[in-house]
Design a protein that fits this description.
This protein has 253 residues and is of the alpha/beta class. Helices cover 24% and strands 16% of the residues. The radius of gyration is 18 Å and the shape is globular. The two termini are 34 Å apart.
């Protein structure tokens, strides 16, 4: 897969960033992105969920996640069947797993979904372990068709996938902080549409699935709202929302 490499020239008249923001940008631009993890998805190759850049390690049969029973998982219908586009699982799928656990409930929920839908090819991004910095509001995207920060966010910006899985445990009634970093970097798409005067970015339409896990008494409403914003900015129609919010007493095994 050919990755896009942005060559950016910054000068004082191109950005009104503060000295701190400029230093942050310069540091980010010096980062060399690693190769993406593109996997042929099978239950063996995805469970427990490998880090960005790591080769998948097939687990033993005892490690393969069991599908949760229907009563344990809440699946929210989005609209009538006539209104929901059909995901293309024969094309590449992007997985953004916001969990810090390689073999946790969220990873197993994602692997179950991939197995059930016979996903053939995917790129997996784990914000906790990837090099994805938050937006610093430098406003470079107001006048350019790309972000000023060069890091692993380019796996999202490459826009070479037909379906995206946005997954997160619910922490303090919200998504995890590293996943929120990804959301802030989608400011590129918002700014390109609203502020940029040049040729607009063409973000391909795609479909999305949102997977949330959690335990305790935290409500998922804010986490779900943020995941929906992320999908909308990526030009993705949410076709399914899957929630399992009792993992403290009934973990995914």
């Amino acid at each position: 897969m050919e990755n896009k490499v942005y060559t950016i020239s910054l000068s004082n008249n191109e950005t009104d960033s503060s000295d701190f923001a400029q230093e942050f940008i310069n540091d980010a631009q010096s980062t060399t992105p690693v190769a993406p993890t593109t996997l042929f998805a099978t239950p063996q190759s995805f469970i427990p969920g490998e880090l960005l850049g790591d080769a998948p390690v097939p687990p033993s049969d005892d490690d393969v996640a069991k599908e949760p029973v229907a009563s344990d998982v809440a699946k929210e219908p989005i609209a009538s069947d006539d209104d929901v586009p059909t995901p293309n699982f024969n094309a590449k799928c992007l997985v953004i797993n916001g969990s810090p656990h390689k073999d946790g409930n969220t990873a197993r929920m994602v692997s179950n979904y991939i197995f059930e839908n016979n996903v053939k090819l995917m790129t997996a991004v784990y914000p906790y372990f990837a090099n994805i910095k938050p937006c610093i509001d430098c406003r470079y995207c107001y006048t350019h068709r790309c972000c000023s920060i060069l890091d692993d966010m380019h796996y999202v910006y490459d826009d070479d996938y037909a379906h995206v899985i946005i997954a997160s445990p619910v922490y303090f009634s919200s998504i995890t902080p590293p996943l929120f970093n990804v959301l802030t970097r989608l400011q590129l798409y918002y700014a390109n549409k609203r502020f940029f005067d040049g040729e607009k970015l063409e973000i391909k339409p795609k479909t999305a699935t949102i997977i949330l896990t959690g335990g305790g008494d935290g409500k998922p409403d804010e986490a779900l709202r943020l995941c929906k914003i992320m999908a909308r900015l990526m030009n993705a129609t949410v076709v399914e929302i899957i929630q399992k919010l009792d993992t403290d007493t009934d973990p995914v095994i």
